[in-house]
Amino acid sequence: MKRLFIALPLTHGLLTKIGFLEERIEKKIKKKIPWIPLKNLHLTILFLGYLKEEDLVKIFEIFDDLSQNFSSLSLKIKKIDYGPPGKKRMIWLYLEKNEKLEEIKKFFEEKLDQEKINYQREERDYLPHINLVRLNFDLKEEIKEELSWHIVLNEIVLFESHLKKGGAEYEKLKSIKI
After folding, report:
1. SS (H, E, C) the chain
2. Which of 73, 74, 103, 113 has its CA 20 to 30 A from that of 14?
3. Along the 178 residues of the chain, how does pLDDT read in single tens digits?
4. Whole-structure pTM value
5. Which value, in Å, is the radius of gyration of the alpha carbons in the chain?
6. Domains of the chain, with CATH numbers?
7. Residues 7, 43: contact at Cβ < 8 Å?
8. Do residues 76 and 149 lie in contact, with contact meaning Cβ atoms separated by under 8 Å?
């Protein structure tokens, strides 16, 4: 069994910008925060959960179909704040809802259903975000900041997540340029 998810990796330029934002937040609140390593940041499209090895071949075929249907994504990061909404368990970069991103998510869901792949379905509405940290302590300080970052992402990856003591490690199993 493999723990899988489909995501958009972030560009080098965006990761650099996020690094500066994290430094600015720490200076503002005067606390050290255990940020997720920049190399692990991504925008999740669909968490699949634990799947069997034989499902991989079908998922790889779905990826091959995807490249013919979509092109790069132009997205907007609108703010940094606690997440999920109304909770303070994480710090997220919130993105504006994007029709093309929703179409890609729907494309994967429909293809996975057609192939009868039993993935972990999300019950709540899709809220595009980039998770920057999981908080294991209470943070009372206000961190919300409005942003207007326009980004372009042009790669979709099937990742396997290896859970370790020091945090998750991600392995690219299939990658496709869009």
Report:
1. CEEEEEEEECCHHHHHHHHHHHHHHHHHHCCCCCCCCHHHCEEEEEEEEEECHHHHHHHHHHHHHHCCCCCCEEEEEEEEEEECCCCCCEEEEEECCCHHHHHHHHHHHHHHHHCCCCCCCCCCCCCCEEEEEECCCCCCCCCCEEEEEEEEECEEEEEEEEEECCEEEEEEEEEEEC
2. 103
3. 999 999 999 999 999 999 999 999 999 999 999 999 999 999 999 999 999 999 999 999 999 888 777 888 999 999 999 999 988 999 999 999 999 999 999 999 999 999 999 999 988 889 999 999 999 888 889 999 999 999 999 999 999 999 988 788 999 999 999 8
4. 0.93
5. 17
6. 2-177 (3.90.1140.10)
7. yes
8. yes
**Residue 103 token pair:** 């179409």
Closest CA to 85 of 136, 21, 128: 128
CA distance readout (Å), 143 to 21, 31, 83, 93, 148: 11, 12, 11, 11, 16
Query: The tokens of 139 are what?
Result: 């943070």
